Amino acid sequence: MELFITAGNTQTPIDRVRCITNIFTGRTGASIALEAYRRGHGVTLVTSHPEVLAGESFDAGRWRCLPYCTFDDLAERMATGIAGSRIDAIVHCAAVSDYHSAGIFAPTPGTTFDAGIWRSNDAEPAMIDRAAGKIKSDEPELWLRLVRAPKLVDKIRSEWSFAGILVKFKLEVGVSEAELIRIAERSRTHSTADWMVANTLEGAADWAYVGFGDSYRKVTRAELPGAVLNAIETRTRHG
Predict the structure, then answer these.
(1) What whole-number distance in Å separates Cα of residue 91 and Cα of residue 16?
(2) Is the entire prediction scored with pTM above 0.85?
(3) Could you read off the pLDDT of 37-83 as tens digits, one per residue?
(4) Cα–Cα distance, 157 to 163 (Å, whole number)
(5) Are 174 and 165 in contact (CB under 8 A)?
(6) What range does the domain containing 111 cover?
(7) Disulfide engineering: 24 pairs with which of 95, 151, 156, 176, CB 3.0-4.6 Å?
(8) CA distance 97 to 12
(9) How many Cβ atoms are within 10 Å of 158's Cβ, its own excluded?
(10) Is residue 239 in a domain?
(11) CB 198 within 8 A of CB 166
């Protein structure tokens, strides 16, 4: 089979030298890619952390590793790699930014922030655009505007017309395991994914749930790559 696996975090640039991102390192996606390769499958791994594979050796005929940094980089890699391809399965493990930066601003002198509202005593705008190649560090405070980014996983079926096996990942914070499974299943059906991998930030180092519908199964972190590959190798599609 041919597998396309995303891994790692995305950077959201604020200026040319600063960004916001998340804590994820791409190790889970890399471990799934390695398991797939060891089972004889062809693998394309798109990752922001190719260094986690340092020391590994691969047959170039069955292995490609494509690095990325930003959300836009990952979107381009996925669009190019998925649309019109002969991929059998996609494992979308990357921790993708939910928001884009849409500007950085400083309050106008005399403007106050009270009860969630900016209040200005004159006709001047409450906020001044401070966007620059490198934002200066002399402002007493800056406000970053974020706008929602498109969900790349939802483009896989619709925009990129992928009809093979899709494995989606879902992470939650501060929820029970029962609620995690309910959230995961709603997310799976929303994206028309076949299989779901779900965990919590608190339990991510130890376990995850893998499944669909009423068949979620809890596996250890060490068992996760094999469980994902077993699911893919069943070649079963679920609506």
Answers:
(1) 31
(2) yes
(3) 999 999 999 999 999 999 899 999 999 999 999 999 999 999 999 99
(4) 7
(5) no
(6) 101-147
(7) 95
(8) 7
(9) 10
(10) no
(11) no
